[in-house]
Amino acid sequence: MFCVPHAGAGPSSYAHWVSELPEDVELCLVHLPGREARLAELPLDDITVIAQRVVRACVDLLDLPFALFGHSMGALVAYETARRLPVQPRRLFVSACPPAHRLVEEPPVAHLPDDEFLTEVRRAYQGIPDEVWQDSALMRMMLPALRADFAAYETYEWIPRAPLTCAVTALGGAADALVPPRSLADWAELTEGECAVEVFDGGHFYLTQARHQVQAMVTAALLSGDSLAATCPNPDRGGQA
């Protein structure tokens, strides 16, 4: 299962998943430039370009059935990646993200000066812990990737194409004001496969507090049919984009 992190985040956002999912499911953590071990690289600010890079990183690892999981902006990247892969995933998990063809337009913030930009991010998303906000050096390191990711999301344009054929599971938080649970069902319009909706307690970053419940649901979905795995002997190497 290839996992794509949310805006500004790196593969460590799924660190706990590596040891907590069963051995039948192997994780490949997508590592985008501009964060964590790739901090010195220039971050990407275009969803299409990001998806193309993820495709190139994944294409040699598709010899076994596989799935994609993305949270928030990462869900949009996972969806656009699935549209471009030569083989469809067995299942696409899209978490805390409105359907790609019905994104809610919010006032753009990526262009704002640093202080104003971070204020808006903190006000709207509340996904960064207080101790991170209080570490000015860490915030300076995170800022380029965070700003690039917001720019990528704000400039994304959905282009009609043939629908996916894979199953889709849309996940969300019951108290997510950014992505109301009622909007998740419209992901069904983007695939010819089945579409399930799963809602958990919490807001936009429900994934942190409901991690174990989400993992149990993901595991059940993946192992309900043929055993799924993704060949990724070295997740850091195989998942770089």
From TrEMBL:
GO molecular function: hydrolase activity
Protein name: Alpha/beta fold hydrolase
Pfam families with a match to the protein in the record: Thioesterase (PF00975)
Location of the Thioesterase domain: 2-214
InterPro entries: AB_hydrolase_fold (IPR029058), TEII (IPR012223), Thioesterase (IPR001031)
Organism: Streptomyces thermospinosisporus
Keywords from the UniProt entry: Hydrolase
Residues annotated as transmembrane: none
Family assignment from sequence similarity: Belongs to the thioesterase family.
